[in-house]
Every structure is written in structure tokens, then in C-alpha cells.
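Input C-alpha cells:
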């Protein structure tokens, strides 16, 4: 039987197994893979929870007690906890909504909060983002009224010692009110009846609604700078607490306190009280009553003035003549002329020093503000929460890089394995047999026949082909 002399690596002395002669070559079984376990990342789970919570609780009202209140002046946000006897929830009021809260929240205060439930992924917490906050038991306006009243009273703005007396007979009156209402007509009617030649300067402004408080403050400040005004009257007719609210604003109260002219508050009816009533030098129950208290009856005053005038004229003329003579004699001396020059120089020097001091103070204040901002920025840069967040981000980025490197390494190893498998396949004896060659053993199957001289006619041999094997009897031999 012909056989070409191929030396198969690894196919030396091992006889073929039984299965090798009758079936395919035995190959190692791959390990059974367990089904891949489904899982979520923390971020995926948080995103799902966020989607459920924030779509379900878009607009809710929550009643509870404020605790752990923290106000951040730099941002204007309020952070606190709403709690009851059995549970609690974190809450936050951002600056854009906090400016509409008219009262001062405090720990222990029971409130009714309206807002939406939001998930804060960095901490894995949910919180109530409050848009409306009202105190329980009282309206927000009434609570704001009482809070401001208590605070200003502690500052001494209501003290009787700072109230100024009204002039006996003012010549010019400033009036801050609406120019189109019935109030201004009633006041002018009363003033005309009591003192027709009295001058009235009216500052027109809104006395109700948004922006009214700012216009009232502007009116008080403007009239306070007018020369010759003796008294300023704030006037408005009756209304609800909401209608009268501009006169309960802190800015209006402080403008009244800062006015250099005595002020009368005539807001609402006799039963209505506002913050302006407590700060003003005098409260009038109605606008008409304010006009009556400002101006006494002209007839009574005129009679009294006539009597005093007759007694004064003679004495004044004599006293004036004597004083004029003495003044002229004294002031004509050159010493006083020199002193007047020195006084003028001193006054100018004082003006210069005052200007330099004000400029230095402004520059110092600007430098202090800049230093404060720089220190605040440095403090913000080293905040513990920010440091933790940066390190968490760094760990997350490192984890992503590690996963990417692991995937690249796995792909490279798989490619190397495929190349080695191909090389092994090319060197496998079974691969050679697939190209038409055969393996021949002796009858015992213990020795691989490599030469035709190893068999004689009549010997039995075992033949192994690619797809199986058989036994054959040698009938002859050729030595080609």
C-alpha cells in the first residue's frame, strides 16, 4: 500500500481511540455559560426614580413644621426640613420664589408649602422645591405685618421720643397720594375751607398694586428735599389688607423715618392700621381728619396773630434800630473783615477735606468688598462638598477608562486566540487527512507504519482516513 512520508507532529505512538476510527475527532467541550444577569447602574436607577417621582408629584400642598432652617444670603435660597410627628422631608425655596415670601420663616413655624417633588441625584435624596409658602393660622400678609412691626419696634422706629411736633400753621404742605381718587379732593376741600391761601405740593403716585410702594418712597424722598415744606401727608382711602399693603412695606417705613419733614399718615379708615401709622409723627384716622389736624381754623389764628402783632411792632422797631447801629459800628472794623476771610478759607478747607475723606472711604469700601469677594470665592473653591464631588467625578472617569482598557485588552486577546487556533488547525493531523492522506497502523494498532517494508502480503493493517477508518489485508507490496 502506497504512503507518502509525512511526519505528523503529535501523532506518534498514540493509537487511535475507538471513536477516532468511526466518527469525528473528539474535541473539548466549551464550558456552559450562565445566563447574563440583568442589572442597573446607580444613575440608571436614579433616573427611573426621578422620572416616576417628578411626573407624579408636580404640584402638591404639604403641611408641616419648619426645622433646621438655613438661609444662604449669597444665593438667596432657603433650605429647611418640613416635619410632623411621623415623618420629615427636605425642602428648598430658591431665590426667584423666596422674594415673594412676605414673612420671615422661622424654626418651629407651622406652614403650608406648595411645590413639586424633585430628586437630587448627587445625594440620592428627594426634596420638595417650594414655590408658595404660607403660615398656618394666619395669612402671609398678616404674618408679614406682625414680623415687620415687631422688628421695627425693636429698632426704635415707633418710639415716642423720635416723634416730631407739627408746625402750628404750616405754609406749604406736601401730599403723597393718587391724583385721581376722592381722597385728594376731600383734603383740598378741607384745606380750602380752613386756610384758602395754603400752598399744597402734590406728588402723584399709585397707592395700590405692584410698584406702588416704590412710588410712595420716591414721593417721600422727593418732598423731603423741597425747600419750604412744613409737613408731608401720606393719604389713601380705605380697603382690604392687600389694598393697603404698600403702606406696610419696610421701604416705606424707613423712608418715613428718614424724612427731615414731619409726616402724617392718613391711610384707610379709623379701624385700619398700617406700619406707616406707627412710624409717622402723627396718625390721622382718615385723610379728611389729617387735613383738619394740619391746619387750625383761620379765624382763630388770625385774631390771635393780630393781638400779638400790635404788641410787637413798637418794641421791634426800637430794638431793631438799636441793634442795627451796634452791628454797623462793630462790623465796620477791619479786624472782622480779616476774620471773615479766614472763616471763608477754613470753610473751603473743610469742604476739601470732606471731599477727600468721602473719596477715601468709598475707595476703602470698594477694596474691602473686593477682598470679601475674593475670600468668598476661595472659600467656595475649597468647600468639602465640591471636593467630594470632584473626587467622585475623577473616580467615575477612572472607572470608565478602566472599563475601556479592559474591553480593548479582551478584544486583543480574542484576536490572538483566533490566530493561534488557526495555526493549530493548520498543523492538525486531521487537517492533513482532510486533504486526502491516510494513517496506517499495524494489526495491533500499536505502531504507525512508515515504510512499505514493514508489512508482508497477508498482514492486516488499520487505516485512518479523515471521516473514519477501516481494516485491510495486504495483498501485495510495491517498492517504488
Amino acid at each position: 500500500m502506497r504512503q507518502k512520508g509525512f511526519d505528523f507532529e503529535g501523532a506518534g505512538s498514540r493509537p487511535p481511540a475507538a471513536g477516532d476510527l468511526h466518527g469525528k475527532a473528539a474535541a473539548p467541550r466549551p464550558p456552559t455559560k450562565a445566563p447574563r444577569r440583568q442589572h442597573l447602574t446607580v444613575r440608571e436607577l436614579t433616573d427611573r426614580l426621578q422620572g416616576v417621582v417628578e411626573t407624579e408629584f408636580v404640584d402638591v400642598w404639604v403641611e408641616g413644621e419648619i426645622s433646621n432652617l438655613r438661609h444662604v444670603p449669597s444665593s438667596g435660597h432657603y433650605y429647611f426640613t418640613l416635619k410632623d410627628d411621623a415623618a420629615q422631608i427636605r425642602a428648598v425655596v430658591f431665590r426667584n420664589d423666596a422674594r415673594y415670601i412676605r414673612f420671615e420663616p422661622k424654626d418651629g413655624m407651622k406652614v403650608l408649602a406648595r411645590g413639586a417633588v424633585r430628586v437630587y441625584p448627587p445625594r440620592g435624596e428627594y426634596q420638595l422645591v417650594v414655590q408658595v409658602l404660607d403660615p398656618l393660622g394666619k395669612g402671609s400678609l398678616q404674618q408679614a405685618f406682625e414680623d415687620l412691626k415687631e422688628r421695627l419696634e425693636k429698632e426704635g422706629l415707633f418710639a415716642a421720643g423720635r416723634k416730631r411736633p407739627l408746625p402750628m400753621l404750616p405754609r406749604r404742605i406736601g401730599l403723597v397720594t393718587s391724583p385721581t381718587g376722592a381722597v385728594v379732593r376731600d383734603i383740598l376741600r378741607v384745606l380750602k375751607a380752613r386756610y384758602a391761601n395754603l400752598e399744597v405740593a402734590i406728588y402723584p403716585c399709585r397707592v395700590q398694586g405692584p410698584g406702588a410702594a416704590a412710588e410712595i418712597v420716591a414721593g417721600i424722598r422727593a418732598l423731603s428735599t423741597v425747600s419750604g415744606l412744613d409737613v408731608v401727608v401720606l393719604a389713601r382711602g380705605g380697603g382690604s389688607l392687600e389694598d393697603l399693603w404698600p403702606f406696610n412695606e419696610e421701604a416705606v417705613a424707613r423712608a418715613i423715618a428718614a424724612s427731615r419733614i414731619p409726616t402724617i399718615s392718613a391711610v384707610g379708615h379709623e379701624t385700619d392700621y398700617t406700619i406707616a401709622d406707627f412710624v409717622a409723627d402723627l396718625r390721622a384716622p382718615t385723610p379728611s381728619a389729617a387735613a383738619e389736624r394740619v391746619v387750625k381754623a383761620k379765624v382763630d389764628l388770625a385774631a390771635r396773630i393780630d393781638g400779638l402783632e400790635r404788641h410787637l411792632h413798637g418794641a421791634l422797631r426800637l430794638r431793631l434800630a438799636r441793634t442795627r447801629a451796634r452791628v454797623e459800628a462793630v462790623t465796620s472794623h477791619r479786624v472782622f473783615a480779616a476774620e471773615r476771610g479766614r472763616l471763608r478759607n477754613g470753610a473751603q478747607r473743610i469742604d476739601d477735606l470732606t471731599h477727600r475723606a468721602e473719596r477715601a472711604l468709598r475707595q476703602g469700601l470698594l477694596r474691602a468688598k473686593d477682598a470679601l469677594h475674593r475670600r468668598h470665592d476661595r472659600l467656595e473653591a475649597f468647600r468639602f462638598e465640591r471636593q467630594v464631588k470632584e473626587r467622585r467625578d475623577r473616580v467615575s472617569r477612572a472607572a470608565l477608562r478602566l472599563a475601556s482598557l479592559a474591553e480593548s485588552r479582551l478584544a486583543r486577546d480574542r484576536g490572538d486566540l483566533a490566530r493561534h487556533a488557526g495555526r493549530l488547525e493548520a498543523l492538525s493531523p486531521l487537517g492533513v487527512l482532510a486533504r486526502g492522506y491516510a494513517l496506517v497502523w499495524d494489526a495491533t494498532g500499536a505502531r504507525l507504519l512508515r515504510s512499505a517494508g514493514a508489512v508482508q502480503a497477508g498482514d492486516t493493517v488499520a487505516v485512518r482516513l479523515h471521516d473514519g477508518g477501516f481494516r485491510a489485508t495486504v495483498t501485495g507490496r510495491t517498492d517504488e
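Confidence is low (pLDDT under 50) at residues 1-25. The chain is about 45% helix and 20% strand.
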